[in-house]
Write a structure and sequence with these properties.
The complex is a heterodimer of chains A (256) and B (278). By secondary structure, chain A is of the alpha/beta class. Chain A is built from eight helices and ten strands. In chain A, the strands form two sheets. Chain A has a six-stranded mixed β-sheet, with helices on both faces. A four-stranded antiparallel β-sheet of chain A has the order 2-1-4-5, with helices on one face. In chain A, helix 3 packs across helix 4 and helix 4 runs parallel beside helix 5.
């Protein structure tokens, strides 16, 4: 097996300084209401980043805007390429909140992961033997070896998250955005997920995780973005989540 | 055995059987996706709505099939165009358009002075289906099945997670539009045999039945076809013995099978059986 063909390195080369994702003055307006404004930050290859903020702060909207699922102002660049619509963002993978997809859908884990390979072929082409190797490989990397033939609805919540991560790996995504991947997940499952996060990050994938769990962010994330209507802080959790800062962040009125 | 075979001594019943079998294969293949994409109400609106084309074609003295195709495609286009309206939502748009087309059909047929009965169009006349209709249905139905098989992978991606599908290059809206057109095709080939009202029966019920236990999409499609073909045949035979409308009898048969499978799979679907992997 050639290390190049099956390597888990992201598909495209990152921009200067290893920047894989850059936002410039991103803003989202839904109807009359400004949900997010002036959000700018950049993300490097292999970073593990938490996005925190109260309910309604715009964490999900931020992720959906980055993926092009909601209209936004400002600029989103992925691997140095300015994104115009959703199809420009194949290097991004979005893992929605758990109940967004019908997990009782008659689908095997292998079929789910293989969906990541779609970007490398045309619509009429079937998955190849190579694709199947990548699928098996990706599943092994998220600690679900041999699960390809399992039915999706046999998976626990944490296993499902890992199957989605395997799909992102198969997609060769540079950046994976996980929306509330850690809520309602028990302690052992969280540990499993972080083992997988660590392996992915070591392989050069960037993970951006929206979460409510500030304790977990303090303990496990090297970088944290605080969002409430705009980007309030960006840095190490020890600074971003100091007591005063958290008080501000979770005050009921978003900052102007 | 003779109970099952006797009805088919007459040639008109053989034609009826072939017509039903074609629907029994094609409708569940398309219906699998209608059920998975939760478009059953769209199918129902489409089924009712084609009556407008049927009525107008009949009034103009052209083959009702062309009327049905025209109305089906027009309705499909309107549905695809307007169902994205955020203020209303798809179900509302579907119902408004479907009832409008249905109403138009009823009014046109009522105004005709030809003695033709509305119920013929609503519930079909499988016993008067000619070989010409059957060949046309085989051609249309074969094309529909071919399209579903060709798009199987795209349908799977677009249906399970349309967000990711779009991101990796699936044209989700095009897939949806194709499915709406396929829906119109199923309604059209069902028209003469089971009528507009009952044409959704074999579209939705067999696929819904196999959805209860199928573990993969292939399994779901194959079982839906098995149910569709069996229910169509048994329903036709029952209608012969009961002297009842075939479309309605097929509908009842399909519903009965659904009820039995639902009850039989109930224990399996209980939450405590959803144990995680080891």
């Amino acid at each position: 097996m050639s290390p190049h063909r099956h390597s888990h390195a992201p598909h495209h080369t990152p921009g200067p300084d290893g920047v894989v994702l850059e936002l410039q003055s991103l803003g989202v307006t839904l109807g009359e209401r400004s949900v997010l404004h002036d959000v700018s930050f950049s993300v490097r290859r292999g970073e593990l980043i938490a996005v925190v903020g109260p309910n309604g702060a715009g964490k999900s909207t931020l992720m959906r805007a980055i993926c092009g699922l909601v209209n936004h102002d400002g600029v989103v660049e992925v691997n140095g390429v300015h994104c115009h619509d959703r199809t420009d963002r194949m290097d991004l993978a979005y893992i929605p909140q758990r109940n967004d997809n019908d997990i009782a859908f008659p689908l095997t884990v292998g079929e789910l992961v293989c969906a990541g390979r779609r970007r490398f072929r045309r619509w009429w082409q079937r998955p190849t033997a190579d694709d199947r190797v990548v699928v098996a490989d990706s599943l092994a990397r998220v600690l679900l070896p041999g699960a390809a033939d399992r039915s999706l609805n046999e998976l626990s919540g944490g296993q499902l998250q890992r199957a989605y991560l395997a799909r992102a790996l198969a997609q060769r995504a540079s950046v994976v955005l996980l929306d509330e991947a850690l809520s309602g997940v028990d302690e052992p499952t969280t540990e499993e997920l972080f083992d997988v996060f660590a392996a992915l990050v070591a392989g050069g994938t960037t993970l951006v995780v929206a979460t409510h769990d500030l304790g977990l962010v303090r303990r496990r994330f090297p970088r944290c973005l605080a969002v409430n209507g705009t980007l309030l802080a960006d840095g190490a959790p020890v600074d971003v989540l100091s007591l005063d800062a958290v008080d501000d962040l979770f005050s009921t009125r978003p900052r102007p | 055995m003779s109970w099952l075979l006797d009805p088919f001594r007459a040639e008109f019943m053989q034609r009826a059987l072939v017509a039903t079998l074609v629907i029994g294969v094609v409708a569940p293949v398309v219906g699998t996706w209608v059920v998975l994409r939760r478009m059953a109400n769209l199918g129902d609106a489409m089924a009712h709505g084609t009556l407008a084309g049927v009525g107008i074609a009949y009034a103009l003295g052209i083959d009702v099939l062309f009327g049905a195709v025209g109305a089906g495609l027009l309705l499909a286009t309107l549905l695809v165009t307007f169902s994205g309206n955020r203020r209303l939502g798809q179900e509302t748009v579907v119902t408004v358009l479907g009832t409008a087309f249905f109403g138009l059909g009823v009014v046109v047929i009522s105004r005709l002075d030809t003695g033709v009965e509305l119920t013929h169009f609503l519930f079909g006349r499988v016993l008067t289906v000619g070989w010409g209709d059957i060949w046309l249905n085989i051609a249309l139905g074969g094309a529909a099945v071919a399209v579903v098989l060709a798009l199987f992978g795209e349908l799977r991606l677009a249906t399970f997670d349309h967000v990711q599908a779009e991101q990796v290059g699936v044209r989700v809206e095009l897939v949806q539009a194709v499915l709406v057109v396929l829906l119109a095709v199923v309604v059209v080939i069902s028209l003469r045999a089971v009528g507009t009202v009952m044409s959704v029966t074999l579209l939705v019920t067999p696929a819904a039945t196999s959805r209860l236990f199928a573990r993969s999409l292939r399994q779901m499609t194959v079982w839906a076809v098995v149910f569709g073909v069996t229910e169509g045949t048994v329903g036709l035979v029952l209608s012969y013995h009961l002297e009842a409308a075939p479309g309605a009898t097929i509908g009842l048969t399909a519903a009965a099978v659904f009820a039995v499978v639902f009850a039989a799979t109930l224990p399996r679907r209980m939450p405590h059986h959803h144990r995680p992997l080891g």
